[in-house]
Amino acid sequence: MHPDNPQPRTILQVAESIRQDALVAYPTDSCYALGCRLGSRDGMERIRSIRQLDDRHHFTLVCQDFAQLGQFVRVDKDVFRAVKASTPGSYTFILPATKEVPRMLQHPKKKTVGVRIPDHVVTQALLAELGEPLLSSTLLLPGEDEPMTQGWEIKDRLDHVLDAVVDSGDCGTEPTTVIDFSGGEAEIVRRGAGDTTRFE
User: Fold this and answer.
1) Is the pTM of this model over 0.90?
2) Residue 55 backbone dihedrals phi, psi, to 5 degrees
3) Which PROSITE patterns match (predicted)?
4) Of 98, 145, 189, 193, which alpha carbon lies 20 to 30 A from 83's?
């Protein structure tokens, strides 16, 4: 798929398959991710299985824009400013979930969820077509230090467990910077592609 001018028909096909419970690998502004429909229990379990995650893992809702993000997490005034200034970009924010977030996606104790707004043309086109966030997790396989960066390599290794790979070329190996705001203050959980200066 063209990285700057994604073909509308292909975007539509991918969105339709996601609506029908497909699990896809797709590019973002910080590396490839696994994504499925927001309410897909099957997709979520498949992501857990591929990445060997436990139930304390924070899934991420990849949102199209700030208005959509605001439906799924509670953001106070100070946090609002910090998040707004950093989006779209290579950040994941952990925030208290609203009632719009299915319970199975929330951290079992904290009732939080990860959210992000990627700065990637293909992802944005897909989110616009879907009209809702993608339930996502970085495509980092167990025991590996770096995510896979090539669509063909992902298809080669994971074709048997994925329904589709959206290939728009290399998108880097560095995952997002993760900032946890659930305690009120910014806590840097993972240093990644996003600059952490404003959260220090």
Assistant:
1) yes
2) -80, 0
3) YRDC
4) 145
Please give the structure tokens belonging to residue 110. 């904290």
Bridge partners for 60 per DSSP: 114, 136
What are residue 61's DSSP bridge partners?
115, 135
Strand-by-strand arrangement of the 187-190 sheet: 164-165, 24-26, 33-37, 134-138, 60-62, 112-116, 91-96, 177-180, 187-190
pLDDT along the chain (200 residues), means of 10: 82 96 94 93 94 85 94 91 92 95 87 94 96 94 85 92 90 88 92 92
**Where does residue 59 rank: exposed (0-12), middle (13-18), buried (19+ CB within 10 A)?**
buried
CA distance 31 to 26: 9
Polymer length of the chain = 200
CA neighbor of 92 nearest in space, from 171, 189, 198:
189
- Domain ranges for the chain, please list them: 8-190
Nearest to 141 by CA among 31, 29, 17, 28: 31
Query: Which DSSP category does 8 fall into?
Result: H
- CATH assignment, 8-190: 3.90.870.10
List the one residue out of 165, 164, 172, 123 whose CA is nearest residue 22: 164
Amino acid in the structure at residue 107: H
